[in-house]
Amino acid sequence: MLPAMPHDARERFLAAPRIGVLGVTDPRGGDRAPLVVPVWYGYEPGGEIVVETGRETVKARLLRAAGRFSLCVQDERRPYRYVSVEGPVTSVEDPVDPAVREALAQRYLDPGEARDYLAATSDQLKDDIAFRMRPQRWRTADFSAFAADFADAGADAAADAAAEAC
């Protein structure tokens, strides 16, 4: 069994600015796997997840059709950790609120980059929409405890080897 994160830790982990991987069912053909794409997302502990996309994108069409999606975020540094959530779409903001778009840019970019990005992509405001999802199911793993056990075991083995060399 994977070492799960406590409730507060998983909320903080998901709220940190990480790239998410969104997954949504793709019913366009029998041989298609779910659509899985990296996304910027917004989240505050206890709240909803928000993702932005173009109104006419494949992602938007599939999200509307499925009415739900999954999001997985991870820390690729050791010790590895991840949070995966799944739940229903609770609302679609069409068009996206400029404040939502600005918050997402500021979440992932430094202030100057966010300002430049928003200016360079301002035309997207008329084409972008935002999907909100209420996390319903959570899957988490935090390998910190394993890493600590391995570090302790390695230190013990090194001490034993040094003692035997004397």
UniProtKB/TrEMBL annotation:
<feature type="domain" description="Pyridoxamine 5'-phosphate oxidase N-terminal">
    <location>
        <begin position="8"/>
        <end position="140"/>
    </location>
</feature>
<keyword id="KW-0560">Oxidoreductase</keyword>
<protein>
    <submittedName>
        <fullName>Pyridoxamine 5'-phosphate oxidase</fullName>
    </submittedName>
</protein>
<dbReference type="InterPro" id="IPR012349">
    <property type="entry name" value="Split_barrel_FMN-bd"/>
</dbReference>
<dbReference type="Pfam" id="PF01243">
    <property type="entry name" value="PNPOx_N"/>
</dbReference>
<dbReference type="InterPro" id="IPR011576">
    <property type="entry name" value="Pyridox_Oxase_N"/>
</dbReference>
<dbReference type="InterPro" id="IPR052019">
    <property type="entry name" value="F420H2_bilvrd_red/Heme_oxyg"/>
</dbReference>
